[in-house]
Amino acid sequence: MMDLGFLHPFFLGPKAENQEFFEQFLLEFLRDHAYWRKNFHPADGNVVPTSAPYRDHYLQFIAAMRKELQELSAELKNAAPFYSPRYIGHMNSDLLLPGVIAEFMTMMYNPNNVAGEAGPATVPRELEVGWQLARMFGYNTDPEMGTTAWGHLTSGGTIANYEGIWNFREVKFYPIALAEAAREMGFDFETVGPERRNLSTYSKWELVNFSVADTVELLAAAKQQITASGMKPNDVKRFKNTIDRETLVGLGGAAFFAKHQEIPPPKVIVPITAHYSWDKALKILGLGLNNLVLVKTDKKMRLRIDHFESLVAQFEQEQVPVLAAVGVLGTTEFSSIDPIDEMVEIREDAYDRGFYFGLHIDAAWGGYMCSLFRREETNQFCEREEVREDLRYFPSQETYDAFKAVADSDSITVDPHKLGYLPYPCGAFVARNMGVIDFISQKASYLYDIKDDRSHKSQIEKLINLGQFILEGSKPGCAAAAAYVTHRVVPLNKHHFGRLVKVTIKQCEYFYAKITALAAELEKKVLIKIPFFPETNIICFAVNVKGNDQLALMNFFGRRVFERLKINRFKPLQMKEFIGSYTSLVKGKISDELAEEVLGDLEINSETFVVDVVDQQREADHIFLFRHSLMSPWLLHRWEGRNYIDRYVDYLRELIEDELVKLSKSRPMEKKVPKADD
Amino acid sequence: MMDLGFLHPFFLGPKAENQEFFEQFLLEFLRDHAYWRKNFHPADGNVVPTSAPYRDHYLQFIAAMRKELQELSAELKNAAPFYSPRYIGHMNSDLLLPGVIAEFMTMMYNPNNVAGEAGPATVPRELEVGWQLARMFGYNTDPEMGTTAWGHLTSGGTIANYEGIWNFREVKFYPIALAEAAREMGFDFETVGPERRNLSTYSKWELVNFSVADTVELLAAAKQQITASGMKPNDVKRFKNTIDRETLVGLGGAAFFAKHQEIPPPKVIVPITAHYSWDKALKILGLGLNNLVLVKTDKKMRLRIDHFESLVAQFEQEQVPVLAAVGVLGTTEFSSIDPIDEMVEIREDAYDRGFYFGLHIDAAWGGYMCSLFRREETNQFCEREEVREDLRYFPSQETYDAFKAVADSDSITVDPHKLGYLPYPCGAFVARNMGVIDFISQKASYLYDIKDDRSHKSQIEKLINLGQFILEGSKPGCAAAAAYVTHRVVPLNKHHFGRLVKVTIKQCEYFYAKITALAAELEKKVLIKIPFFPETNIICFAVNVKGNDQLALMNFFGRRVFERLKINRFKPLQMKEFIGSYTSLVKGKISDELAEEVLGDLEINSETFVVDVVDQQREADHIFLFRHSLMSPWLLHRWEGRNYIDRYVDYLRELIEDELVKLSKSRPMEKKVPKADD
After folding, report:
1. Is residue A115 part of a domain?
2. Which of A37, A259, A470, A578 to mutate to test the interface with B (most CBs of B within 10 A)?
3. CA A53: distance to chain centroid?
4. What is the distance between the alpha carbons of residues A525 and A545, in angstroms, rounded to a whole number?
5. CA angle, corner B114, sides to B110 and B120, nearest 5?
6. B393 and B437 in one domain?
């Protein structure tokens, strides 16, 4: 058994075990803040007189405030107890204390990270968080070693996903705008692009297949060649304005593609398991949901590489640009890991043939798992055996290869407010090539700005007015402080943060074994199946009553069992033994082959899995699954000989047995069978 | 003089005067939270043993954490002291205590308002905040009275602005998609749209000029007529899919406008004073910056209605759709109030002629000023005289009329983290017609869902999975709790929140008088001019040396004076007497007529105001202005006979005199004159 001792000071604790030092820290920094106030022009005296607290209106205000706050406090206690090891539902847990304290302390100062002036301590820390994350992913952050990465925080993964697409779009269609402007100005750029030819000699199709690095270099070459040409300042300005007008952001999608009819609007390729924010991204950015292309998944809920490859081949052949392919590192429902390495390979091969697309990793959930693969001193990627220590299955060779290839992507979404154990809101976007900022900046100074000092200090100076380079505007400096302090105290490598992550994976392996054992034990009465082998730290299973072959009944039975694992805000929380979550495999969203397999294992007639339910007694449009995110790190804590997982599985057995008894006594189908989203 | 007593319990206070009860509340709710934890399955025992705090690794962790936190605390103290009445810079101030305490309390529970399951107490409160704000703006929130508003929080005003445009876009182009799908299905809708004709009889130009209300009604009629027709479920589904495919979000902008070539891509009209997030909106949403149309401003930095009207007429005549016009209620640089009432009128007239556009109010800054115009019991809009009480100029008739017309807009951006005195991040988007959500929802259930219970309770149920209806995904429940509790304790009407707002405006009137007096006093040495009469609570002024007619020197002198009003992170904060901010009127962004007038008053030769600076000794591309946001409510607090504004103006006199002496001794132009953005 793993020693969980290292975790003792990390969290407030399920029983608020660390309350004492938490209080102590909060008071220390609260008072520190208060004395800061008192020490700024002390002679000014008080604006709130010392007599104020004895006045009626003051006391009434305090009383009214207390009433509202107590009501809020009471209602908050009906929420799910994320801090408890008995909460094994969604991707929530107790929070890392360094983050909570830093967040609270900083909130009192209330910095705004939209610009350095409003967040002088926290904007540089936010950029440093970007580099901390980038290093964990294997992106280069050392200016001496060439192109560096950059990253920043967002309100969440959804915004980070939008930024991925937005960045790719502005970079991808820039060469066309530059070529257009150059033609208009009667100027040409020499030995640029992947083939080192004059810009004017590239076809539009070639121009939309420049890589991110090609385009960043193209811009640098353009600056240099314009400067070298001795062009007059007014002409440089006219050049710049022409480019701005001709870009996709200038013209808008409609006018841009109307002007360049040879180039159809671009596609974005994601696995069917991708989060719904990808739908939103295509809609909101005006790219069109019809241009979102879904890739089928395999038996481990990983993107099917053969299908991906054939889609790439198809678009290449049809000369349809692909803006981006998205690999998911830890799907939110199953925590499955897409084959990033194979996606990288296909991407590289395509680029060699002159067909390029960006590769974005949606690691909102799984991003922090990368810490488990990094050595402390050198930040080197670990050997598989090093990672595997103490674990049974993780990482499979496929998973290992996928994690290793993360460094070859162009950009990454990661949510410190998920597996980073930090408070909301804390998402992040990280890009491998900092050069992209010149294409999205609100102040397009790029044709003038030819100085090239790339130290972190000068990078911070360049990015200090952060709102110019990101989707959002005003943003909380306290989130940056929380992430920064946490990453300093619990560094993102296998010896620190990685150990915490490892505990969650270890728990999942144990959980898998226990559920498998329960399945064997109950095999005469029910079929318990784990449809997708849990690669990391989320596990799903389905329960069918032995002898039943109708999906509607299986779902009904599952929901009845689940009823007691679900928060009910009208009943005291204390009545709950454990809290879980569920997910649904929806007809049409899962491939027929895969559904057939899953249902086959459960001895369900796959004909009862339908798009349009006609016979509610038999059919359903979804497959109900129990789902557990094993994020609480205390699940293997044992007392009286049993840990939380043992106890949960015992409880589950009890629930199943109970419902079997009830089922045998009733005709459950008399009730309305709920639909996927109820 | 106003009595500031009512403010005594509102804030922690510039000298942390309310530290005692702040500590007391924080500890109360921290402990309340801790005991909640202890009371969930108490028998489970501790996972952190009581011996843990005596172990080495535990103590090392605490020590490392303290080091990082202390470093953070130290750096935070170099930031601007937002809480102090000596801070009269940007739009920052001390925070309302109910909000800070609610935020802190809720953060410990860490709810996620993406969905009710993750934020059962805070999602309903967030929607309630939307209605609180809507009521303040005069939108209907009573289901009995017809169409109701809805609103929600965002990470900031930037995101809220994007949502405004996004909502308008999806609604505006929906009728075309519906008509297209109906044609394909061989179905027609009867007596719909502004002219109550069959849908098939409308031209595309007419279809893009349906109002928001028309389109919401159209959708309701479509549902009803499809249901009444007895169409088969499969056909209904096919119909629905066809609509989805044909919408702008389905096709994407490029394919949509390629298909409907009669309709050019739409314009968005904003005043030149609009925040740069509007540029970002057009870029990110793929609409194209070239389609952002800027309206000139008048001598009060208000949108010039004649120019606006002529633009509207032009687009109508050219048959170019206008997605939205944006009026700014409190520009971020000058706090000027656009003539919303006249914009409404022009919009209504245009609609009567068959030309429609949405009207969005960017009230990020000024939104909370609306509280000053609402009566307590009835929420009625006050008479001008009621608002004016205690004030000298505010509200001018124009300003009053503008505020009154806010209720006639379609949607509003407001930032509780600005004039709402709440911590970051807390922006908000409010829409007058809740029907818009059917056009932006991620689950397009609209053709089925014909139940029409519109009580708030059922509206909360409908919106409980909030992430389906907004731009963001995961979002902090603590921000919702902070805004909700604050609005409950300090309600949004003239007797509560309005009083706080009034203090800020009163301060500005006093400030105006003092600066005017200073200008008279120093008129032989310098010209001090207030270029734009301060309508609300931000004031700008320029200082020129008497006898100088060159802009470069004026700017240089202003910057030298300002140097001592600026935070310098390498010097102790305590050395600062006052902290201000500045802004620049940039050549090309301000109209030539207006610039001529402003410079004339300052006796500057307007030929020295140029786009491309050649002679740095004389010319500049911007006009430097001192800018003060008077958000701290303590500026009129007086001791030893003088208040903070008196003291600031005295200090300013001193700075000016000092710099005049220095100037007379040197040739300042030997130094490099800085540019607008230095």
Report:
1. no
2. A37
3. 47
4. 6
5. 60
6. yes
- Say yes or no: A128 and A47 in one domain: no
Q: Within a domain: residue A114?
A: no
Question: Cα separation of A160 and B619, whole Å?
Answer: 43
Q: Which residues in A lie closer than 8 A to residue B613 (C-beta atoms)?
A: none
Q: What is the mean pLDDT of residues B262-274?
A: 97
Which chain B residue has its CA at the smallest distance from A421's CA?
B110
- Summarize pLDDT for B447-461 with one digit per residue, the tens: 444 455 668 888 898
DSSP state of B133: H
Task: Kindly state whether residue A164 falls inside one of the protein's structural domains.
Answer: yes
| Last-in-domain residue among A212, A246, A280 | A246
Taking an 8 Å cut-off on Cβ atoms, the answer to whether B252 and A290 are in contact is yes
Output the pLDDT for position A447: 44
Nearest to B289 among A15, A55, A249 (CB): A249
Task: For residue B322, report the phi and psi dihedrals to the nearest 5 degrees.
Answer: -110, 120
Q: Give the residue on B whose Cα is nearest the Cα of A567.
A: B117
Nearest CB to A285 within list B16, B17, B286: B286
Cβ distance of B76 and A34 shorter than 8 Å: no
| Number of A–B residue contacts, CB under 8 Å | 495
Nearest residue in chain A measured CA to CA from B427: A474
Report CA-CA distances (Å) from A168 to A656, B291, B471, B491. 50, 22, 19, 45
What CATH number did the domain enclosing A647 receive? 3.90.1150.10
Shortest CA gap A664–chain B (Å)? 32
- Residue A58: pLDDT above 90? yes
Residue A257 lies in a domain: no
A288 phi/psi in degrees, rounded to 5: 95, 125
Task: Output the DSSP codes for A584-640.
Answer: EEEBTTB-HHHHHHHHHHTT--GGGB-SS-S-TTT-BSEEEEEEEE---TTTT-EET
The closest of A80, A22, A99 to A500, measured between CA atoms, is: A99
CB atoms within 10 A of CB B299: 13
Residues 6+ apart with CB under 8 A from B451: none
- Does the CA dihedral B196-B200-B201-B203 come out positive or negative? positive
In tens, the pLDDT along A521-575 reads 999 999 999 999 999 999 999 999 999 999 999 999 999 999 999 988 778 888 8
Q: Which of B48, B157, B249 sits opposite A17 (nearest CB)?
A: B48
Closest CA of chain A from B142, distance in Å: 23
Within B138-195, residue ranges assigned H as helices are: 157-172, 174-185
> Looking at the 3D structure of chain A, how many domains does it have?
4
Nearest C-alpha of chain A: how many angstroms from B428? 12
pLDDT (0 to 100) of residue A2: 74
The boundaries of the domain holding residue A46 are 5-107
